[in-house]
């Protein structure tokens, strides 16, 4: 059974940084693409960033491009989301997600950015950015 556990959320001020972590268990982590999504109160869940199985390919939502970075350490079964220059509009519950089935070379912004690509989700971690 695949399990994803996020951590690292918290309350910060605008302009601060945070690093979220997602630890996976239950299958071979390095075989699958991963992603981060977020959901603010009253809004739909939205794509934030995605990384392919090797870590060599990443994509970002326009709203976070240049401020957020995504990485993974396959030896530690862990994915990260480094967030810098945080804004109040970044306030949301952040979820990590794991690809349901390996797409491999077909990984793209469209596939990595689609919630339908992912079969497993974490419980979420709250990020609150005050102005």
Features:
four-stranded antiparallel sheet; 131 residues; mainly beta; seven-stranded mixed sheet; 3% helix; globular; 1 helix
In angstroms, what separates the terminal alpha carbons?
40 Å
Helix/sheet category: mainly beta
Shape category: globular
Contiguous helical run count: 1
Provide the β-strand percentage band: over 45%
Mean pLDDT, nearest integer? 95
Poorly predicted sequence stretches spanning 5 or more consecutive residues? none
According to DSSP, the number of beta strands is 11
Order of helices and strands: EEEEEEEEEHEE
Rg over CA atoms? 14 Å
Tell me roughly what share of residues is in helical segments: under 10%
Structure in words:
The protein is mainly beta. The chain is built from one helix and eleven strands, in the order βββββββββαββ. The strands form two sheets. Strands 2, 4, 5, 6, 9, 10 and 11 form a seven-stranded mixed β-sheet that branches. A four-stranded antiparallel β-sheet has the order 1-3-8-7, with no helix packed on it. The N and C termini lie far apart (40 Å). 36% of the residues are buried. The model has no long low-confidence stretch (mean pLDDT 95).
Set out the fold topology.
Layout: E1 3-7, E2 10-13, E3 18-25, E4 34-39, E5 46-51, E6 58-60, E7 68-73, E8 78-83, E9 92-99, H1 109-112, E10 118-121, E11 125-130
Parallel strand pairs: 2-11
Antiparallel strand pairs: 1-3, 3-8, 4-5, 4-9, 5-6, 7-8, 9-10, 9-11
